[in-house]
Design goal:
This protein is mainly alpha-helical. It has nine helices and no strands. Helix 3 runs antiparallel to helix 4, helix 6 packs antiparallel against helix 7 and helix 8 packs antiparallel against helix 9.
Length: 255
């Protein structure tokens, strides 16, 4: 590889580039996408499910690939690489298990959840140290916060109904779930006021959330795959809005 090309690649992958809006967005998405990954994994690798939907497995692959791409573009800091590689190893174990050993799913998924929390915390720690302009923070942060809130609620919903012994230390308390739901509703109201130019898309995203809200808040029954579909779409749309409203170098949001 020519030296000039190598230098350009090193620059693109260097932590010194973390100050731009794109890297801030990627760090935020590491949190939301890693939670979506775990939610999909719990939906597919359920020992009580005899015929899991293969689309959930495809979604897990997609989220793992996206996380790996983001970590690479962020310069592969060790604090992100270690938990991500651990999640990949655990997923490979899950995917290779014969159905006759499905009773091993819960313990492996518990390990994945621990690594996901480490990845999420590492992303938060790095993001808190990234230098960003006040305009970038003001524009993108509410969308990213809403994206992460919906992803957190979805992952907790899947875990709440997943057959895992001793999972109560990993799930939110009932009061926390209701508080998060109220915070989500309040943030939707705020976003609709502050970003009225995006009202149509925001209303669609909010509608997806409200469509499955009753299921998300229930504490009895079993998890439904449709909840993942609607909330995953809402999370992706919010992340796109965060990118759309992030100021460019000229100080104006991209077209």
């Amino acid at each position: 590889m020519r030296p000039i090309v190598m230098l350009c690649l090193l620059y693109l992958l260097s932590p010194m580039t973390w100050g731009d809006g794109r890297s801030d967005q990627q760090l935020s998405e590491l949190s939301s996408r890693s939670q979506l990954l775990c939610a999909s994994a719990m939906l597919y690798f359920n020992p009580e499910e005899r015929a899991p939907d293969p689309r959930s497995l495809t979604v897990v692959f997609h989220h793992l690939s996206t996380l790996e791409t983001y970590v690479l573009q962020l310069g592969q800091p060790e604090s992100l690489v270690q938990p991500l590689h651990a999640m990949k190893r655990i997923f490979a174990q899950l995917d290779s298990l014969p159905s006759s050993q499905r009773e091993r799913y819960p313990e492996l998924l518990r390990q994945m959840l621990v690594q996901q929390r480490q990845l999420q915390q590492a992303a938060v720690d790095i993001l808190s140290g990234v230098r960003q302009s006040s305009s970038e923070a003001a524009q993108g942060q509410p969308f990213n916060a809403q994206s992460q809130a919906l992803a957190s609620l979805l992952m907790d919903y899947q875990l709440r109904f997943y057959p895992m012994p001793g999972k109560h230390e990993l799930t939110m308390k009932r009061e926390q779930v209701l508080d998060l739901d109220r915070a989500i509703e309040q943030r939707f109201e705020m976003l609709l006021v502050r970003h009225f130019e995006q009202a149509e898309l925001l209303a669609k995203i909010r509608g997806n959330y409200q469509f499955v809200r009753a299921q998300l808040l229930q504490d009895k029954g079993r998890a439904q795959g449709g909840v993942e579909f609607y909330l995953s779409r809402a999370v992706a749309d919010l992340d796109e809005l965060a990118v759309m409203t992030r100021p460019t170098d000229s100080g104006q949001p991209p077209l």
